[in-house]
Amino acid sequence: MEEEAATVAGGGRGEQTWRRRPPMKVMVAIDESDGSFYALQWVLDHLLGVGGIVPSNEPSVEDTGMITLLHVQQPFHHHVYPVGPGGGGAAAAFYGTSSSFQEGVRLAQAEASAALLARAMRMCSDKMVKAETLIMEGEPKDTICQATEQTHVDLLVVGSRGLGKIKRAFLGSVSDYCAHHAKCAVLIVKPSGDSSQPQSGAAKP
Fold it and tell me: Which structural domains are found in the chain, ordered by start?
């Protein structure tokens, strides 16, 4: 973050120059897991008033900063398999309804995303913290990192889903990936049962 300078009267000692650090821009990744909402609550409880995140009754966003609530919708992939002898009729019937089926899935995704972000916005409102929402589509790992670059945030906050060793080996960890690939500081918040302190790190450019 760059600092901005201002000159004020020094009360008989001439003019003095002081520097104010711009408000920190924070992004919190939100999904359906309890871990992501725990991470958001941790930010609201522990970063409130720090680095420019202050109650929303302050005069302007420029002075108060803002949390960006990001939700990533995974792209819908549909597959058609032959059914019955030859499979032609069944496949043709599926293709005939695939467009409306896909539209229904997209609508359900949009409603689910809106509900998740509405819950997150209420949490911010309860703490009087300004927030904005952002919905993107793609694979969560890559898309979250892309979002941090596009929005030029200073800090990315992600929750820990607590994957076991087997799932972590096959699926990988979104939080671990972001910690290594996001081009901003990354804070990984673990539930208190997993660790008494959150993890943090600065991603390499």
Answer: 21-202 (3.40.50.620)
